[in-house]
Amino acid sequence: MLSDSVAISVPLRSDDETKTNINNDPPAYENPQLDFSGEWKDRGFAIAFWIHTIAVILVGLILGIPTVISHMKDISSYKWDIEPLVYSLGGAAVVSGIVSFLSLFALQLCAGQLIKCSFLILIIMQILMGMALFFVFPPLCFLPGAFILFTLIYISCVRNRIAFAEAHLQAGCASLRSHSSLILVALVMLIVEFLWLVFWCLMFAGVIRVVLINLEPNPTSNLGIVLYFLIGKLILFLLLLSCYWGAITFGNIIHFITACTVGDWWFTSDGSGHYGMSNSIKRAFTTNLGTICFGSLFEAIIKTLRFLIGDGHRKNCLTCIIDCVLRMIEKLIGYLNEWAFTFAALTGQGYVQASRSFIELFKKRGWTAVINNSIVATTLMIINLGIGLISAVVGGTIIYNMIAEASENIGLVMVIAFISFIIGILMSSIITTLLKSCVRTVFVCFALNPAALGATHPDHLQKLTKVWHKFYPQEFTNSGYANEFKEPIV
């Protein structure tokens, strides 16, 4: 059992814990202080986010609903036969959900084979694209050919590290299976994100209507036209920032909860303490919500700026350079947030402190997660596409057999198949997004305290230490753990 003042296990310690076994402790950069006190981290950002969320809901209800109702009068007399739609889309959702859940077991049993198959499928898809372009416009065939060449070079560089990715992916699958309720939490958060998008769309419609009614440019004054343009851009910026901030924050909340549950699987043998599911959800919506909102706001600002710059009809060299710079900053902030939130979930630190701590830790260990993450991400992307195609076939088949004169309504069948494809992607992304968070957290936990896994899941510790000895012996030696975890003798 974990109390508020007791650390997990050496080398992790709380602030008031006395130092023991100094000679055997790892370096200080791998020995972060835990902060699971009831104090809210980055409180101001949490308060701002809740005020912003309430404002979006109220404006959507007050201004948005009347606007939507007024526009729906024209189509209210149109009769819709929704039964085939419900059966087709519902069937696609059920099938994709089942296949997604089964893919979790498949990844744990044969992750290495699935990683290799994903590379093969990627090459086949590029070949098929090249064949299609050959019949449409032959000169474009060189594009898939270039992609195939780059893919083969990439595979040749990482093929020897598939076992490294496999060990981490299997550990991630095991941690997710031990907390299967996390899938339900992710599904609830997906519904929350959908509701957020609905309320934001209502707010957007209401605000735009009010702006169009009350804000009119003065055609006789150049200054009036400029002010109208600037005010319009400012309103659009704030609306888009609101959408991105909410969506990114809710997505990062499930990442935070996932990191906590992996910490529970790694460090403790029961579901109690700071990493338990109920406590993790509480932390994500209270004491550490400001941490999540803080990092998400940076990402939302960059995404909004990129949208506004790319929205212009005129593009020149300067806007392309700015867009490229913003794209790089967006990738950097997104990468930083993923690891910072993981570290904050495991240690209870605020955003700035967690960012500094994980950067210092990875400097000493080396940035070896880049290759591993790219391999895992490619595999999970192929799984998403495969489940999406299965869902599209199911949805299209059901609607084709239920509607009258289906051959004459092939357009409707294609639309339902496309919507089913999106549903399949969304359902599978619940599992794959959780798995990416799990793998990332496994990597951080191994950097923090591999010995703790020996007390909870020694079989996974043996697999991880084996691949670290094999593929990153220098980094493993520099970490100070190579002497403690000897390479298994074959």
From TrEMBL:
The chain crosses the membrane at residues 45-65, 85-107, 119-137, 143-162, 182-205, 225-247, 374-400, 412-435. It is found in: Cell membrane; Membrane. It is a multi-pass membrane protein. Pfam families: Choline_transpo. The keyword Transmembrane helix applies. Its main location: membrane. Keywords: Membrane, Transmembrane, Transmembrane helix. GO terms for cellular component: plasma membrane. One of its GO terms (molecular function) is transmembrane transporter activity. Coiled coil: none annotated. Belongs to the CTL (choline transporter-like) family. Choline transporter. This is Choline transporter-like protein. It comes from Rotaria socialis.
